[in-house]
């Protein structure tokens, strides 16, 4: 009888320990879930906010909303503090977009709604629609720039410097000039007609000084083409093609 009673007591103790263990595990899991769903306050644009908007003016254009902490980026703002008091928005903020600290920049680096990255300068090139991927290139696009030019006689792929000669005996070449440039703005010289016609526009890109020199020189001595880059575009610098090698000869 004593052995039987001891066995019963041990069984009861094991059952109690197991129940306690399950309870503690479930409680810990619930705590982790609650922590992940903890609500935090964020600032959300209640309408489109143009680039160059001051922090003071921004207060009237945002709402405070509650969102799960696990879905909010680390630099999301819950209030407009003194760290951005003298800053302005570096780009347009869409309606419903979270306001983050990365969206602000110094007023001095902004020109007519364009935020120029640190260490870069803005260079503008006039283009036709067919020189900018049929008008598909927009602000924020990443582009490669190709240069088509008349070749200096006896100098391989060196530009002659006189633009695109129409003399059939002159050799011409097309080469990759620059790649990975960020487009800061695309401004139509004349608004597109209602029929969707896309014409001339000026494209402004952010470049280092050395690339600015190449871009300006290429514009003066040849014809530039902006190619729209995708996330997996493969661009390799090389000798390009000329009239003689166009068909692989």
Automatic annotation (TrEMBL):
Domain Flp pilus assembly protein RcpC/CpaB: 115-228
Signal peptide span: none
InterPro entries noted in UniProt: Pilus_assmbl_Flp-typ_CpaB (IPR017592), RcpC_dom (IPR031571)
Cited CDD domains: SAF_CpaB_FlgA_like
Pfam families: RcpC (PF16976)
Protein name, UniProt field: Flp pilus assembly protein CpaB
Gene this protein is translated from: cpaB
